[in-house]
Amino acid sequence: MAKPRLHPDVAEVLLTERRIHRRIATLAREIAKCYSDKEVTIITVLNGSMVFLGELLHRLPMPTRLDSIVARSYGARTTSSGRVRTRCQWQLSLKDKHVLLVDDILDTGQTLKMIRDRLRRECPASLRTCVLLNKPTRREVDLQPDFVGFNIPDKFVVGYGLDFAERYRNLPCIAVLKPEIYRA
Q: Which of 36, 72, 141, 183 has the most neighbouring CB atoms within 10 Å?
């Protein structure tokens, strides 16, 4: 069987599609064990978490409600601007609900912390966080996710929903982008 060709802008594949799928299946079991049969309200951070959430959602056995928030802190950059812009606030009531905040990547922590703090003001019964990727070496705030797909090194990654300037989200793997692409 021929090895699939890498996208020409990719320096290396960090996580294969198969490895990601296996880990998401395990992550779903961990989440299900934590919540048992309780209904969970999932708030997902768009757009990056869409692919991850789709895969995760199919594997969660408990009743779920789903809503989203759009947050941006990168734009066409490879590092967070430090300013988090949000739009499209969630619509579901979170009071006394078990809430799981799902995001694609936890980097500096600014975005997830800001959203988590907003969610807390809604008085949920519980609030946990789940990220596909965690870059602990980049953290600027005190925030540890409750559920983590993978801890990764400080490399700029794309694919599986993650983007650079709204491109590469459709790659089926998590890949390191060639530096000359984002330095151009």
A: 72
Look up tokens 């999932």; give the residue: 42
- Give me the domain span that covers residue 106: 18-152
pTM over 0.70: yes
**pLDDT tens digit sequence for 5-50:** 778 999 999 999 999 999 999 999 999 999 998 999 999 998 899 9
Options 107, 117, 154, 163, the catalytic residue: 107
Number of domains forming the structure of the chain: 1
- CATH code of the domain containing 139: 3.40.50.2020
